[in-house]
Amino acid sequence: MTVTTAASNQPQAPDLRANRGFLLRGALLAIIVAIFMSLGNVNIGAIGQGLGYALAGVTVFMTFRVLGFVDLTVDGAFPIGGAACAILIVNGHSPEFAILMGFAAGALTGMATALIDIIFKIEGLLASIIVITAAYTVTLHVMQGRSNVPLLNQETLISRHSKAFRTWLVEQFGDQMRRQSTNLLEIMLFGMIVVVVLVILYLFLRTEIGLAIRATGKNSQMVRATGINHNLMIIIGLMVANGLAGVAGSLVVQQFGFADVSLGFGLIVRGLAAVIIGEVLLRPRTVGQLLIAAVTGMLIFDISRAWIFSALDLPTTDIQFVSALVVLAALGTPRLYDRWKTYRQRHGG
After folding, report:
1. Nearest partner of 240 among 210, 199, 206, 270, judged by Cα
2. Coil, strand, or helix at residue 180?
3. CB neighbours of 309 closer than 8 A, spacing ≥ 6?
4. What is the pLDDT of residues 162-214, one digit of tens each?
5. How far is CA 237 from its chain centroid?
6. Is residue 103 a contact partner of residue 243, using CB atoms and an 8 Å limit?
7. Which residues contact 273 (CB under 8 A, 6 or more apart)?
8. What is the spatial distance between Cα 338 and Cα 125, in angstroms, rounded to a whole number?
9. Beta carbons of 86 and 152 less than 8 angstroms apart
10. b/e code 64-100 from CB counts within 10 Å (16+ = b)
11. Residue 118, exposed/middle/buried by CB under 10 A (0-12, 13-18, 19+)?
């Protein structure tokens, strides 16, 4: 009996060590980021913006890491979701309903990519390029022919609670908190939404369908051999992933106060950088840890960009150039480190 108990506990020890290490790295990273934000005078609004875009990072994780599908559809699903959300809010619908419809719009965009790939046997990369090209026109039609839809004087998640939250914050902590009330509200609201979505997604990936989607990305031939509909798993996986991009677009639209047809430009590179940043810094092992790492990577991306702007006192016109530098650092640093390790091994270092 003792031997059996000891044997059953053996697999748990590595898991406990991995979870403990993940939590320690996360705590250390949070402390370092807080110090850099303080020293660099970075506004906490960068955290709110990172949380707004966070689910787009999860989208890239789902398509590239889980499904093993080279998919650029996030660049189209994000603005379509945001456009659907904005136009529904303008027409009097609640922000919550608008976010759900943003998810549906993003999911349909992902389904279009999957169907082109399956029906016409076009590779995922080309299929997604076709979809994001068409998505530009679809977004314009969703916004009723306008390239920009403002949400001024409309009820959004933020405006609904802004006044009451600001009043409470000033009463509790003084008038100096008035300027940060909107940023803090965004962090709280978006943080709760991201946590809820991650929990739902984590539970979904542990269901039979979720496990089948994960297996499809790992070994599609094995999945076909077991009788699982491989094509259906791709469709569901891309719909769920790009639906999350639609939710991210809905949050960002409400944060910015407008929807724009070009809002998702270059988002795929940003999402990929977020996934790599999270994996390099946190070294996740489980699915739950990988989801958290993708969100963390997006937060680090936005905070790093804000830190560069603050440290160098750059104008807002340089935002795309700075974003490119952050992406380059995220993608290039791990490769330079691997090359350095290989060089040391070859030369006996």
Report:
1. 210
2. coil
3. 318, 319, 322
4. 999 999 999 998 888 888 999 999 999 999 999 999 999 999 999 999 999 99
5. 15
6. yes
7. 297, 301, 326, 327, 330, 331
8. 27
9. no
10. bbbbbbebbbbbbbbbbbbbbbbbbbbeeeebeebbb
11. middle
Q: Which pair of tokens denotes residue 330?
A: 């995220």
Supply the DSSP string of 298-337, one letter for each residue.
Answer: HHHHHHHHHHHHHHHT--GGGHHHHHHHHHHHHHHHHHHH
Q: Strands (DSSP E) along the chain, which ranges?
A: 148-150, 258-260
Rounded distance between C-alpha atoms, residue 273 and residue 221, angstroms = 30
| Angle value at C-alpha 276, between 211 and 30, nearest 5 degrees | 100
User: How far is the CA of 34 from the CAs of 47, 144, 245, in angstroms?
Assistant: 11, 43, 27
Q: Six-digit token pair at 193?
A: 């939404």
Measured CA to CA, the distance from residue 8 to residue 310 in angstroms comes to 53
**Quick one: which of 248, 254, 249 has its CA closest to 185?**
254
Closest to 67 (Cα-Cα) out of 213, 168, 188, 184: 213
Separation of alpha carbons 40 and 25, rounded Å: 22
Tell me if residue 30 falls in helix, strand or coil: helix
**76 and 56 in contact (C-beta within 8 Å)?**
no
Rounded distance, CA 47 to CA 53, Å?
10
CB 82 within 8 A of CB 60: no
Question: Per the structure block, which two tokens stand in for 96?
Answer: 């919550």
How is residue 175 annotated by DSSP? G
| Residue 150, helix vs strand vs coil | strand
| Helices then strands, each counted (H, E), the chain | 14, 2
Domain coordinates in residue numbering, the chain: 43-264
DSSP label of 122: -
Q: What is the pTM of this model?
A: 0.91
Each residue's pLDDT tens digit, 262-320: 998 889 989 999 999 999 999 999 999 999 999 999 999 999 988 888 888 878 788 88
